């Protein structure tokens, strides 16, 4: 039996559809919550039900508008603690600011650590996330952090792409991720090597691995402006790939990303719903969205029932 009270699911405005998908998997309902703004623009939060002693999971990606989403999350955590919730878990499918995980120059912050401090100050007891950009961010917290892998839901769909598949890392830093996918798929592995030839000169790109006459799937944890991803698709086609597909967990899609992907050689762009897909992307026709609702639902069930979360990594 769980040590905590009833299971409760709370959500803000960042990704309510994903929260509904989680509830559908659990056979539960969302706890009524008012999350809006006052006339002066300040965030307003009010929990609609009694949560005293309950086991509450707050579903909120830190995605655009990033700072609004973060503030909503912090205030929901504080409201729940002040309402005497038994335990509060922040379910953050996309952890914003994760790329700012170290000092890259003088007089700059480590923003991911600041966000971790915000959540801790809000009174969170546990964090549940998916495909952290940097695994070491788990060490920024002094509480349990469960980092799930979207591969558990993506692999079934990727297998429908066919047998003649090669998984491609768009840079050397993503090689470990691409190798893990390739191993589970029984597919080939390729890496795109990028080298800057000199100051203010374009990068020279070459493909390490055999992609000729194969379906090349470019894999990354997120697509932001899509510059690197699109260039990877082009170089793969130039090296004889039969078809190129993009696959990512987090569709950030900022700036010119959607226009770039529309004009790109990718026939399909596989993403998850850790971040809601913008209307322009939905209209594009290239995007295939795989829901992580069931994955998060299983993790929430296991945490609530004091079962193992690591069993979700064994698929």
Write up what this structure looks like.
The longest helix is centred in the first third of the chain and has 17 residues. This protein starts with 6 loop residues before the first strand and ends in an 11-residue tail after the last helix. It folds into 2 domains: 142 residues, Rossmann fold, CATH 3.40.50; 140 residues, Rossmann fold, CATH 3.40.50. The strands form 3 sheets. Strands 10-9-8-11-12-13-14 form a 7-stranded mixed sheet. The chain is of the alpha/beta class. It is globular. The model has no long low-confidence stretch (mean pLDDT 94). β5, α3 and β6 form a beta-alpha-beta unit.
Question: What characteristics describe this protein?
Answer:
315 residues, alpha/beta, Rossmann fold, 2 domains, 7-stranded mixed sheet, 5-stranded parallel sheet
């Amino acid at each position: 039996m769980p040590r905590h009270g009833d299971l409760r699911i709370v959500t803000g405005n960042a990704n309510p559809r994903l929260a509904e998908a989680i509830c559908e998997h659990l056979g539960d309902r969302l706890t009524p919550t008012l999350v809006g703004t006052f006339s002066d623009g300040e965030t307003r939060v009010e929990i609609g039900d009694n949560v005293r002693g309950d086991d509450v999971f707050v579903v909120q990606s830190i995605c655009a508008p990033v700072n609004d989403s973060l503030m909503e999350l912090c205030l929901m955590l504080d409201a729940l603690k002040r309402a005497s919730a038994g335990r509060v878990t922040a379910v953050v499918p996309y952890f914003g600011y994760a790329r700012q995980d170290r000092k890259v120059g003088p007089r700059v912050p480590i923003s991911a650590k600041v966000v971790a401090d915000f959540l801790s100050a809000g009174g969170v007891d546990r964090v549940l996330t998916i495909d952290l950009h940097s695994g070491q961010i788990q060490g920024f917290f002094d509480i349990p952090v469960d980092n799930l892998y979207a591969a558990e839901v993506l692999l079934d769909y990727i297998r429908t792409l066919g047998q003649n598949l090669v998984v491609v890392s768009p840079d050397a830093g993503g090689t470990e991720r691409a190798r893990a996918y390739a191993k589970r798929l029984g597919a080939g592995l390729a890496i795109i090597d990028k080298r800057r030839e000199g100051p203010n000169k374009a990068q020279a790109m070459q493909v390490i691995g055999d992609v000729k006459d194969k379906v090349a799937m470019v894999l990354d944890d997120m697509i932001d402006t899509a510059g690197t991803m699109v260039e990877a698709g082009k170089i793969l086609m130039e090296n004889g790939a039969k078809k190129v597909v993009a696959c990512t967990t987090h569709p950030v899609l900022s700036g010119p990303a959607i226009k770039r992907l529309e004009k790109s050689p990718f026939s399909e762009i596989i993403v998850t719903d850790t971040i809601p897909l913008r209307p322009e992307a939905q209209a594009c026709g290239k995007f295939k969205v795989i829901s992580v609702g069931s994955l998060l639902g299983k993790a929430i069930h296991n945490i609530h029932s004091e079962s193992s979360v690591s069993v979700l990594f064994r698929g």
